[in-house]
Design goal:
about 220 residues, alpha/beta, Rossmann fold, Arc Repressor Mutant, subunit A, 6-stranded parallel beta sheet, 10 helices, 6 strands, about 50% helix, transcription regulation, NreC/VraR/RcsB-like_REC, Sig_transdc_resp-reg_C-effctor, CheY-like_superfamily
C-alpha cells in the first residue's frame, strides 16, 4: 500500500485528488493539509510514502515546507504539484529535495503513475521540464568542485556522469560493459557517498559540479 498526504490550500483540489487516488486500491490517502506548516505536521504524524505538495500555500510555501519536511522524514518522497510551469519553481523545488514535479493539468493517470514512481524510490519530472532545468543549471558558472567527489571512485564517477545524462541502468550497463546488478550497486554507492536522495538529485549535482554540460 502506498500512503499519500495531500497538501493544498484549496479544498476542492484536495477533495478531487482524494477521490481520484481512492479509485486505486494500492493507494491510501492518510492525511490532508491546508498549508505548508500543516503539511509538515500531518506528514510527521502519518509518515507517508509520498506527499503531494502544492507550491503556493499560506503560512509556509510548498518549497520551504518540502525542505523542512525532508529534514525530519528523509524516507518520504515529495511530488510537487503546481499550475505554474516556471523555471524558478522547478529549480527551487528540486533544490529543496523534491523527487518529482508535475503540473496540475496533467492527465489523471500521469499523477497516479508519478506516485507509483516516487514510491518505489525513483524520481520524475514532467515532460518538457527536464530541458529547462538543465538549461537553468547550465547557465550558472561552476566556481568550485564539490569536496564530496573525493569519496567517489573513477568507475563510480563514470556512472555518475551517465546518471547525470539521464541514462537508465540498462543503458549504463551497456555503455560500461558491466551487468545491471553492478550498475545498481554503483548507483547506490554514489548516491550514498554524495548524500543524494535520488537520480534527480544526481542530475542536479552533475550540472552544478560541472561534470556534464548540455549536449554531453
Amino acid at each position: 500500500m502506498i500512503t499519500v498526504v495531500i497538501a493544498d490550500d484549496q479544498g476542492m483540489i484536495r477533495s478531487g485528488l482524494r477521490s481520484l487516488l481512492e479509485q486505486h486500491d494500492e493507494i491510501s490517502v492518510v492525511g490532508e493539509a491546508v498549508d505548508g506548516l500543516d503539511a509538515i505536521a500531518v506528514a510527521r504524524r502519518t509518515t507517508p510514502d509520498v506527499v503531494l505538495m502544492d507550491i503556493r500555500m499560506p503560512e509556509l510555501d510548498g518549497i520551504e515546507a518540502t525542505r523542512l519536511l525532508l529534514q525530519d522524514l528523509p524516507g518520504t518522497r515529495v511530488l510537487v504539484l503546481t499550475t505554474f510551469d516556471l523555471d524558478d519553481y522547478v529549480f527551487d523545488a528540486l533544490r529543496a529535495g523534491a523527487s518529482g514535479f508535475l503540473l496540475k493539468d496533467a492527465p489523471a493517470e500521469d499523477l497516479v503513475d508519478a506516485i507509483r514512481t516516487l514510491a518505489r524510490g525513483d524520481a520524475l519530472l514532467a515532460p518538457g521540464v527536464t530541458r529547462r532545468v538543465i538549461e537553468l543549471f547550465a547557465s550558472t558558472p561552476v566556481t568550485t568542485v564539490p569536496v564530496e567527489l573525493a569519496r567517489v571512485s573513477s568507475r563510480e564517477l563514470d556512472v555518475l556522469r551517465l546518471l547525470g545524462a539521464g541514462r537508465s541502468n540498462s543503458e549504463i550497463a551497456a555503455e560500461l560493459l558491466v551487468s545491471e546488478a553492478t550498475v545498481k550497486t554503483h548507483v547506490s554507492s554514489v548516491l550514498g557517498k554524495l548524500r543524494l536522495r535520488d537520480r534527480v538529485q544526481a542530475v542536479i549535482f552533475c550540472y552544478e559540479a560541472g561534470l556534464i554540460r548540455p549536449g554531453s
